[in-house]
Amino acid sequence: MPKVKALQCALALEIRSVTCPGVVLKDKEDIYLSICVFGQYKKTQCVPANFPLVFNARMVFEKVFPEAVDPGDVVAQLECKFLTFNS
């Protein structure tokens, strides 16, 4: 069988802390960040709901683009997608 070429894209995301001056969270239960990149969902550990929120989290998202033959193809595919950050 002939070799199939594909490109792989990896994103290493480091989240140290989240600040929001002047904001007080009403709900005092622990909180986490839920992040979706390349259709993969990951979440941080729960932290107390007091600013600054200190996560010190590292996440790696990877995706293989089997139809891509050059990096421009990957860029075109990623431009059609978007990232979401939810808490």
UniProtKB/TrEMBL annotation:
Keywords assigned by UniProt, alphabetized: Phosphoprotein
InterPro entries in the record: SPATA6_fam, SPATA6_N
Coiled coil: none
Family to which this protein belongs: Belongs to the SPATA6 family.
One GO BP: spermatogenesis
Domain Spermatogenesis-associated protein 6 N-terminal: 12-85
Matches recorded under PANTHER family: SPERMATOGENESIS-ASSOCIATED PROTEIN 6, SPERMATOGENESIS-ASSOCIATED PROTEIN 6 SPATA6
Gene name, Swiss-Prot/TrEMBL: LOC115938321
Cellular component aspect of the GO annotation: sperm head-tail coupling apparatus
GO molecular function: myosin light chain binding
Organism: Leptonychotes weddellii (Weddell seal)
Protein name: Spermatogenesis-associated protein 6-like
Domain of life per record: Eukaryota
